[in-house]
Specification:
InterPro entries: Myb_DNA-bind_4. It comes from Pelodiscus sinensis (Chinese softshell turtle). This is Myb/SANT-like DNA-binding domain-containing protein. The structure is a single chain. By secondary structure, the chain is an all-alpha fold. It has one domain. The protein has six helices and no strands.
């Protein structure tokens, strides 16, 4: 499978991303985290295990775009415009309605961050299913 920054995400790729994003520990790590590279490295590795070849930057960009589009549609609905729609709206609604509302905790330096150590993950891009991904 070819990978590139401009390659559109297929419906199956988005579904795989949403399935990982919907996991409680992932949602908790993503909620309000400012430094989230480690989380997206982990998500990209999980996607590779499912046969989806995306790097962490592509995963983060898709996450941000989906979240932005969802909030735009949700705002329109709340404003009385039910004509705005998006694919996966109900999936995202289920994921995002469960975001914790508590304040972020800060480390001793006053920063809110997620590290790879906190996630107990590896940054290698090896795929355990034998699928080869090439990132350009």
């Amino acid at each position: 499978m070819e990978s590139g920054a401009g390659k559109h995400w297929t419906e199956e790729e988005v579904k795989a991303l949403l399935s990982i994003w919907s996991e409680k520990n992932i949602r908790q790590q993503l909620h309000g985290t400012l430094r989230n590279k480690g989380i997206f490295i982990y998500i990209a590795k999980r996607l590779q295990e499912l046969g989806v070849c995306r790097d962490w930057k592509q995963c983060r960009a898709k996450y941000k775009n989906l979240k932005y589009e969802f909030r735009t549609v949700k705002y329109a609905h709340n404003s009385g415009d039910a004509t705005k729609t998006m694919k996966f709206f109900h999936d995202l609604d289920a994921i995002l309605q469960n975001e914790p509302v508590t304040q972020l905790t800060e480390d001793e330096n006053g920063r809110c961050s997620a590290t790879e150590r906190q996630l107990n993950i590896s940054t290698t891009t090896e795929n355990t299913k034998g699928v080869k991904c090439q990132f350009h």
